[in-house]
Each structure stands twice: as C-alpha cells, then as structure tokens.
Specification:
The protein is built from 10 helices and 14 strands. The model has no long low-confidence stretch (mean pLDDT about 90). Helix 2 packs parallel to helix 5. With about 350 residues, it is α/β, with parallel strands linked by helices. It catalyses: O-phospho-L-seryl-[protein] + H2O = L-seryl-[protein] + phosphate; O-phospho-L-threonyl-[protein] + H2O = L-threonyl-[protein] + phosphate. This is RNA polymerase II C-terminal domain phosphatase-like. Keywords: Hydrolase, Nucleus.
C-alpha cells in the first residue's frame, strides 16, 4: 500500500517469506545484498551450502505405511524432549516416523565451519521446521534459512533465486537432479537414503529397505562422509590463496576440478556401448567419463586401462582379457559419478551384470 495516498499497489519482486511473511525484494536489492555478502564470506572463509532433507539428510514415513517387519521400530524411538542424541523419532501429532541418516550430526557440525547452510525441501513449511528441530535443536546451523515448497518461485522445482547468496559461492546437496534444472553445476547428487520400506516402494525398488534388514549405512564410509570430503576439497580450492579477492572466483569450477580427480589417470575404451551411427564423443557416458578425469578413446592400445562393454564376446573385451586390462560394464562410470569416488572394478564385472539381470528377470 502506498503510504502517501493509501492506494493498494501490485506486489513485485521475489518473496522471502521464510525470513518474514511480508518480505519481498526486487532484483536490484537482491543483487546488492548478494554483492555485499561476499565480503562477509571472505572474512569468515565460508561459502553457502543448500541441503535437501528427504533421502539426503533423513528418511520419513507415514506411520500407517510401516510394514509388520518394521513394527519393532516403535520400541526404538527417541524422546522428542531431548533430540540431541537420537536418530529415530516418532511424531504422533504428524502421524510420522523419521530416521536421521548416519553421520548427519558430524556432517552438519563440520560443514557449518565451512558454509552458511540452508535447508530447502519440497515438503511443506510445518514439516520443514519440524525436521530442522530434529537436525538442529539449538538453531545454530540454519537459523531462519529454512525453505519449503511454499517459498519457491516455481512449482515442483527448486531454484537459487530465494537464496541470498551469489550463485558462484553456492553448493547444493540433493538426491534429485531434476529438482534443480537451472543449477546443475552447483549440485552434488547424493545416493538416496532408503531406511523405510515405504521409501523403496515410492521409487519402485524391489529390494528390502534398511529397516527390514535391521541394518543401516556406515557412519565412516556412508554417503554423507564421502560428500563431506568433496565439500572440504571444494572449499580448500576456493580459499587456496588467502588474500585473493573471492568476488571473481566460482565454486562451480572448483567442484568440476574435484570431480576430475575421481578417474584421473585412467584411459577408457567403449565396446558396443553406443549406437553404431552415433558419434562416441557426443554420448553422455563419454562426457561423464571425461568430466571424471578419464581419457576416452575409440581404439585399444597399450595405454588403455579399462574396456567398458556390455558383453564379453566383443573383440575389444577379448583383447582386454588377453592383455590383463579391466573389463567393466557402464555402471562402473555411473557409480563413480554418483558416489564421488572410484569404485572397485570387481563389483562391475560383466559376470556381475549377468547375475543382476538374471535376478531382475526372476
């Protein structure tokens, strides 16, 4: 409303109602705030980290969706009065149970020393705030930086336009790449955390959930521990030269640099993986291998370390066996890309692929 004449004005700008319900900022003001914040980041030696909730930091299920094999969980929940030491919580008032991912407390503590952190979830605001209480009971990690689907500017998508940080200083951790169509270079995709059976059903997975197996991810070797190493590397590269002005630096380039170390030193030849008439170097798998630091080639020679094939009968695969080179299926590259570290070749042999396909057919 105009304070001079009282006329109601059209609302413009981007809403930041997660900070204050009436708060709107125009693009010039957002740019000014982001620019001025770079000085703060430089002094604090911090970047921004935007964290997804579901399947990234935790897993939730509706109570009625618990299978009989999961009923034992009801006697293993922790008190909501003091959540600091717990990992499994039953919230009757939300008809929900939530399991925090192993290593999440250490992850948040260490990450908070390098990043100003946001939560950004496709869940609604009450859910986002309740999950924040479980993860950050003292409010020391996130403050009011809790963004829900009610705060986004595009339905069914996430965007950095509601984050008050320069895109060149923001990293994102999420299990869903498609949620961030305009920010894939900022994104670290994490392996999904499927603790509850309903989570496996949601993604049409046939295997048993961790709760049904009465198991869980490893704390020291799980997905969050791996990602923390990636974040530390990117942060160290960004602040490598202490006195350098960071306004011209871009953490997305640092992330690409970290990724290029994963398969560095390996030379890969593909055998009947791509369509016959396609240009191999245009195929997403070829590009992925190069992004991971591997050298790709179309012909074998002594410098080749890996042949990627889908069957043992190809000439290149037989050559690799004779020359004692690794023969793996394409999953070896996909897994390295997804898990941010080179995977053991024996887990991606063509024999393993046959067994896997046989199980799926059964």
């Amino acid at each position: 409303m105009c304070f001079v004449c009282g006329q109601k004005l059209e609302e413009t700008g981007v809403s930041f109602r997660y900070i204050h319900k009436e708060m709107r900022l125009n693009q010039d003001e957002i740019s000014r705030l982001r620019d001025s914040d770079m000085g703060f980041l430089q002094r604090q030696r911090k970047l921004y980290l935007v964290l997804d909730l579901d399947h990234t930091l935790l897993n939730s299920t509706i109570l009625r969706d618990l299978k009989p094999e999961e009923e034992y969980l009801n006697s293993h929940t922790h008190s909501l009065q003091d959540v600091s030491g717990g990992s499994l919580f039953k919230m009757e008032f939300m008809h929900m149970m939530t399991k925090l991912r192993p290593f999440v407390h250490s992850f948040l503590k260490e990450a908070s020393e390098m990043f100003v952190m946001y939560i950004y979830t496709m869940g609604d605001r009450p859910y986002a705030r309740q999950m924040a209480k479980l993860l950050d009971p003292k409010g020391e990690y996130f403050g009011d930086r809790i963004i829900s689907r009610d705060d986004g500017t595009v339905r069914h998508q996430k965007s950095l336009d509601v984050v008050l940080g320069q895109e060149s200083a923001v990293l994102i951790l999420d299990d869903t790449e498609n949620a961030w169509p305009n920010h894939k270079d900022n994104l670290i995709v994490i392996e999904r955390y499927h603790f509850f059976a309903s989570s496996c059903r949601q993604f049409d997975h046939k295997y048993k959930s961790l709760s049904e197996l009465k198991s869980d991810e490893s704390e020291p070797d799980g997905a969050l521990a791996t990602v923390l190493k990636v974040l530390k590397q990117a942060h160290a590269l960004f602040f490598e030269n202490v006195d350098e002005d960071i306004s011209n630096k871009d953490v997305r380039l640092m992330l690409k640099q970290v990724r290029k170390e994963i398969l560095k030193g390996f030379k890969v030849v593909f055998s009947r993986v791509f369509p016959t008439k396609a240009k191999p170097e245009d195929h997403p798998l070829w590009k992925m291998a190069e992004d991971l630091g591997a050298t790709c080639a179309t012909e074998v020679d002594a410098s080749v370390t890996h042949v990627v094939a889908m069957e043992m009968g190809t000439e290149k695969a037989r050559w690799a066996v004779r020359e004692k080179k690794f023969v793996v299926h394409r999953g070896w590259i996909d897994a390295a890309n997804y898990l941010w570290k080179k995977q053991p070749e024996e887990n991606f042999s063509l024999e393993q692929l046959k067994k896997q396909q046989g199980t799926e057919e059964e």
